[in-house]
Amino acid sequence: MNTKLSLILLASTIFLAGCERDRIRAICDNNPRLCANLHADGWCRFERSNLIRARYQQYTEPSDASHYALMTELVAYRNCLDPLMDIEYTDRHERKNDKVEAVLLVQDELAQLEQQSRHSDYPYLQLWHWQRHGDRQARSRFITQAERPEMQQPELQKALAALLVGRDKPAAEQALHRALGLYGKGQDIDSGIIADLINLYVGERRFEDAWIWTRVMSEFATGTGLNPARMDAYVRFSPEQQQQMQQQADSIVLRLKNGTYIRQ
């Protein structure tokens, strides 16, 4: 990269950072209560900015989605500050105190938001209450709305499959295939969805399907140490069988990359 281009990129980065600071400052100037209980120094500034934006979004356009986003940013902010609680400051003890106060206040805010959203039909909030608090009613509501438009997200279908696999493996398998079919062309595919499919097939001794999807997995999980040959420990296929199955795997890979995957 030449010097001129490097300077242009650096200037652009500084400009964007400056604009971002100005936006956050404007939010705080116009809505002081959205920023009042947060720490003041430079630690965790990205998490703090994200939290302020999430608060502003929920304040100006309240919805289940913005409610969930705010809860997520509160957790990210708290988790960023938590390790700093054990740092002993020798000169400016107030720096530690305002972080402690901020953590306590965001925990209270999070608890209030969780209480308000306990009966929400928004799937991400239902999943939140099940995964973090073991709320079985939220789990049941999440499962029963599998076909709703709001559920047509890869990560939600993956979570649905995890809840179904112990009691309804065909439905879990369907959810995993649906998850893969929700990706568009060029999108990064969560290889964990494919791994869940492989585990399901191995558990049911469907080794041909497992072999095919292990080859598919190798296209989307490079650098993970995945060794497709390990499938030979379960069953061996003839060269002719492997050639036919490889063709199926190649077809699946092509459709996934093109965003046209539908289970056949």
Give a quick set of tags describing it.
11 helices; mainly alpha; 2 domains; 264 residues; single chain; 67% helix; Serine Threonine Protein Phosphatase 5, Tetratricopeptide repeat
Care to describe what's here?
The protein is an all-alpha fold and 264 residues long. It has two domains: 28-116, no CATH class; 152-258, Serine Threonine Protein Phosphatase 5, Tetratricopeptide repeat (Alpha Horseshoe), CATH 1.25.40. Helix content is 67%, strand content 0%. It has eleven helices and no strands. It has helices at residues 3-30, 45-60, 64-81, 93-116, 123-133, 136-144, 154-164, 169-181, 191-203, 207-220, 239-258. Helix 1 packs across helix 2 (45-60), helix 3 (64-81) packs antiparallel against helix 4 (93-116) and helix 5 (123-133) packs antiparallel against helix 6. The longest helix is centred in the first third of the chain and has 28 residues, at 3-30. It is elongated, with a radius of gyration of 24 Å. Mean pLDDT is 87; it is low at 3-18.
* CATH hierarchy class name of the largest domain: Mainly Alpha
Question: Any low-confidence stretches, pLDDT <50, length ≥5?
Answer: 3-18
Output the number of helix runs. 11
Number of strands: 0
CATH topology of the largest domain: Serine Threonine Protein Phosphatase 5, Tetratricopeptide repeat
Write the layout of secondary structure elements.
Elements: H1 3-30, H2 45-60, H3 64-81, H4 93-116, H5 123-133, H6 136-144, H7 154-164, H8 169-181, H9 191-203, H10 207-220, H11 239-258
Helix pairs in contact: 1-2, 2-3, 3-4, 5-6, 7-8, 8-9, 9-10, 10-11
